[in-house]
Amino acid sequence: MTHRRVIIGAIALAAAAACKRPQPGDPVRGLSAAERARFDSGRAVFDSTFTPAVGLGPLFNASGCKECHEDPVSGGVGDEVERHAAVFHPERIGAVCDQLAAQGGPVFQDSVTPALHAALGIDREPLPAGVTTVAARTTPEIFGFGFLDAIPDSVILSYADPDDRDHDGISGRPNRFVDGRLGRFGRKAFVPTLREFNDAAFQVEIGITNPSVPLEGTVTGQPLPPGTDPAPDPELNAHGLELTDAFVRLLAPPAPLKQSREARHGRDVFTQVKCAGCHIPALRTGDSPIEALRYKDVAAFTDLLLHDMGPDLADICFGLATPSEFRTEPLMGLRLRSHFLHDGRANTPEQAIDLHGGEATRSRELFRALPAADRAALLAFLKTL
Known about the structure:
The protein is of the alpha+beta class.
């Protein structure tokens, strides 16, 4: 009888675990034992703190992934605000964007190691001469990014309407990487794949060279002074990259909270004021070597396309994206954020809506014209995401 009770109890616990809603920082459901082991090992790399002796810097924004992606758990948001710069040339054929790669851009790091400070007397990377437009960038949470990576290009392109042929005022268009591949990651949707997004972050954000990005950056285009980078390259090996990618790729999207009657009405209002025209409520993944990511609907609330958000939000260009164009921000995990928009200037979702312009002007004005109860319902819905 006792043995039978133990079995029944174990079954009940397993059923309860299966029904438990994923919490921030949890892996996606349905992983194999090997995938879960890689996720756990990847978290250890993600949570590591690097020092100059093992490769930190000499230019960096953080000493580890978790320093920026920390709230409420590893993979969440951070309080850091970075400096990005690029120069837009609308007068040139094709409206050329100079991402200042030869001068250290587009990310200009805010910290330096003691060795670099001693050599150059700087506390952060100087901006190139003549650069007048600097973009502020907050740290996004990266929960559910594996699902975004698994969405087929064809799904994203199906929402593109660059010439606004349906006359709804929304003309989303794709950004493209330097080799023509479709971009989807980053505030301007420039990076095509999650692996490239993760690998580049080690070098750009932490100064950690690796097999994918083997070269150290420069100081505004000038080589690093001798002796300021003592660690041998690559400073992180391929296995470390693979484990980190597994952790980020397998982070589950935060499960939406249970909706009140007001929030359910707010979801209808969200559609009514045309927010869903860009913040597509759900996208479906395609084939994937990871079964847990394969052919799944993800409530991402984005189309991963560029939209003109008007002059008030404009900052820099990036790839094909003009200064006023931004990728539709995914809203999954919105309730975990304390600041909103790409630069964190909005303290509430309502302020963020009020700052929408360009293609979102109609939705903004429809929101402003709503009865107070409907506005409150829409905001209540957003707080469940």
